[in-house]
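Handout, section 4.2: multi-component inputs.
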Amino acid sequence: MRVITAVIAIATGALILFGYFFEPFAIVQTLLLNWAIILASVAALVGIFNLLSVHTDKIRRGEKGSTYSALLVIAMLATVFFGIILRPQHTVMQMLLNGIIIPVEAALMGLLTVSLLYAAIRLLRRRADMMGIIFLLTAVILFLGSATLPFGDIPVIGTLIRPWVSQILALGGARGILIGVALGTLTTGLRVLFGIDRPYGGQ
Amino acid sequence: MSFSLDLITGFISLFFTILIFSYLIGDNPLFRIAAYIFVGVSAGYVAAIAVWQVIVPRLVYPILFGSFNEKIFASIPLLGGLFIMMKVSSRLSGIARLTMAFLVGAGAAVTIAGAVVGTLIPQVNATINMFDLNAAASMNIGKAEALGNGAVIFLGTILTMVYFHFGASPKTDGSMRRLGLIEIAAWLGRIFIGITLGAIFAGVYAAALTALIERIASMSNFILNLLGNF
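Output:
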């Protein structure tokens, strides 16, 4: 099994990768990616089933917080039922999307305003070193520079410092971080393709 | 019908927004109720999308109504899907590794291509293009300014990457330290990283503030419209 899984992973990865560079492999690449999309969907369903079983187990054992688990299970089963029977485009499903999913996501994002402000204050209190000060100073400059004020932009900060900090200094750092992340991703992907890392099991 | 559905959606939206905002007074049962229902509904919605947008059109239809070739090609992911479902059973979960290996291989290839074509080449090209004086002239940017900006961005990119270089050689006293030049470059790289993270923080904070304002505006509009109807 250990060898078979490694062969499957390496062959699949190599064939898909060849599809990007060699024209004849493009058809195979499309086919394999189509299979991958189907299998990823099935994997997502298995994951959702696992979430369901974890919470039903909690309810069965009467663990602390099982009332919340019951709410989760009811909400999930009802959504799956309506989603499968009526399809996601149906008005009821759109009501769930616009009434629960989008507002809760936006409200959680809104809560970040308070959490981030609290985190920034804590950072200044606990770690007032060079890195912390540069970090917060940059954030403050960008806020002041982009704030919409009745009298327009703040002189120098809004017209000179903010564009230079965000478009030159921050861009340089961001580019370095992005290239570093891409190199790390490339290395990790190659390790999987060469069979050095086997996250699918069978080490 | 449309009005009543909008009304119900508005009520639900208002109710859940208030439950989530109750977290401002600390973690409480109201917030947890909203969070658990949100997770349940989201998971159910994802399941419905996965079934109707992917599994039915790409797997079920070809198996039931496709040509012979389509049925053959669809039978392989069908088998893979059955394997992956074995993950539910602790005794047969090993079989799921075959499908997981396929998914990991496919994911690795897509990730490699994405990293090279989507990030590495465009970012390197963009850094080089900063020194393109003809392009700068077409945007009314002076030569000195273009070269200066390009040099600062290039320096920032290099110094930031040097900061993440942790290769070190042993000293005579047994301690492990980076080369002096790399140590200085890494120190300068920290400044660029601090500025970049500060800019990202400001961006995320602005987005969070926008979401907060949208929620408050949505709630107040709904309440005002409701009061206006009576």
